[in-house]
Design goal:
By secondary structure, the protein is of the alpha+beta class. It has two domains: 99 residues; 246 residues, no CATH class. 36% of the residues lie in helices and 23% in strands. The chain has nine helices and 17 strands. Strands 2, 3, 6, 7, 8, 10, 13, 14, 15 and 16 form a ten-stranded antiparallel β-sheet that branches. A five-stranded antiparallel β-sheet has the order 9-1-11-12-17. A two-stranded antiparallel ribbon has the order 4-5. Strand 4 and strand 5 form a beta hairpin. Helix 3 packs antiparallel against helix 4.
């Protein structure tokens, strides 16, 4: 019995040693669960997304980014061409447009296209070729139309030397060495007045007889005071006065006749300002008209003092309907007749203004063309031109106070 007890004790110890591992270990089925097929769909989808994203990133780095950088350069050339048009550098604008077209065509040719879509790539390339040529032709037309009669480049433009002109009356072209005391005093007074503020500018147009609105029909005028080349070189200081017909029947008028009237507007360049459209009604027949503005009141002051007009030029444009009806045109400022031209000194040419006309014109009225009015040149040059059978040699309306003393008037009736 004793031996049996001793032999059983070690067996009990072995059984306890076999039970030592934790009975809570997960079953084999739970460990194998993550590799079941239905649980692999999400990781596979993530891998697919990652692969497509990497392909897109590779395509962007290899093709889109280089093309975008090249196209940005073409954009700079295109913007540069537009900028050159704005500053009247038409030749340079054409060069930039040409190079931008060539570079764009090269970019289209070198483009590898859409992978696996050769037909679509060829079609899209053909569309790009055609579009680029159409756009280039359009902007070429814009450059040509914007140029008009201007020089291809302001660098190549040579400003014509203005020809000194003789004005209308002997009082306006005095011999400074043989002036009377009255003339000398008048000149001293004008030089003093010319240093004062320029506060009033107006234009006076006289007709060769009385005209009714029916006889005049539609008319319009545009007058400008600026440098010789203000129509060709941008941002030259300029003062512009424009008017047109505005005929009305006056209420309670026993005659029931159409009254002569005008619409007018004033504007300037550098600084750029303008007034509203004003209107005036007069009698049923007129022998001319005048209109002007107060520069101090309207704040339109491209020229500050009267002497700022010295060396400037007076530009005159009228509608064809006024040709043959005008007997005299005068520019007045601060109660001085600065320059004037009578009918036998006026030369009309088929030129239209290059600057904007801000009054509204209907399509029917546009049929009546513009005419430019210049002065007939006199003196030695005119006589030499007559010998060469060159008729009507013209000169600009030049305001040169060193050649003449403007006439002062105290009452505007002197203009009637």
């Amino acid at each position: 019995m004793g031996k049996n007890r001793n032999s059983q004790k070690p067996k009990l110890k072995k059984e306890k040693l076999e039970i030592l591992p934790k009975p809570d270990l997960p079953p084999i089925t739970e460990i194998a669960e993550p590799i079941l097929p239905e649980k692999l769909s999400e990781p596979e989808e993530g891998l697919q997304k990652e692969t497509l994203w990497r392909k897109f990133q590779h395509f962007r780095r290899e093709q889109i980014t280089p093309q975008r950088k090249r196209w940005s350069g073409l954009g700079v050339l295109g913007v540069g061409a537009v900028a050159m048009i704005q500053i009247n550098e038409f030749a340079l604008a054409g060069v930039l447009l040409f190079f931008s077209l060539i570079l764009f065509l090269i970019q289209i040719y070198e483009w590898k296209g859409i992978t696996g879509q050769s037909v679509l790539t060829k079609s899209f390339k053909g569309f790009l070729y055609l579009s680029s040529l159409v756009v280039a032709a359009y902007f070429g037309g814009v450059i040509y139309n914007s140029k008009g009669e201007k020089a291809w480049s302001t660098w190549l433009y040579k400003q014509p030397q203005p020809i000194p002109i003789q004005t209308t009356t002997e009082q306006q072209k005095p011999d400074l060495t043989k002036q009377s005391s009255e003339e000398q005093l008048a000149r001293i007074e004008f030089r003093t007045e010319s240093a004062k503020a320029l506060n009033e500018v107006s234009v006076v147009v006289k007709f060769n007889r009385d005209y009714s609105p029916q006889e005049l029909g539609h008319f319009r005028t545009l007058f400008a005071v600026s440098t010789y080349d203000f129509e060709d070189v941008p941002n030259r200081p300029a003062l512009l006065l424009a008017n047109r017909d505005f005929y009305q029947f006056v209420p309670n008028d026993p005659t029931k006749q159409l009254r002569f009237g005008m619409s007018h507007i004033y504007y300037s360049v550098n600084p750029s300002r303008k007034t509203g459209i004003g209107r005036s009604i007069e009698s049923n027949k007129v022998n001319g008209f005048s209109f002007g503005l107060d520069l101090l009141e309207t704040k339109i002051q491209p020229f500050k003092v009267l002497d700022d007009l010295n060396g400037k030029f007076f530009f005159v444009y009228v509608s064809e309907s006024l040709v043959g009806k005008i007997s005299e045109i005068s520019l007045v400022a601060n109660n001085y007749i600065l320059i004037s031209g009578k009918s036998d000194q006026l030369v009309v040419s088929d030129e239209k203004p290059k600057t904007n006309y801000l009054l509204p014109i209907s399509s029917t009225e546009k049929i009546i063309q513009w005419r430019k009015v210049s002065l007939k040149l006199t003196g030695i040059i005119a006589r030499e031109a007559e010998k060469l059978n060159i008729p009507n040699v013209v000169a600009p309306w030049q305001l040169d106070f060193t050649l003449f003393t403007p006439i002062k008037f105290l009452d505007k009736s002197v203009l009637d």
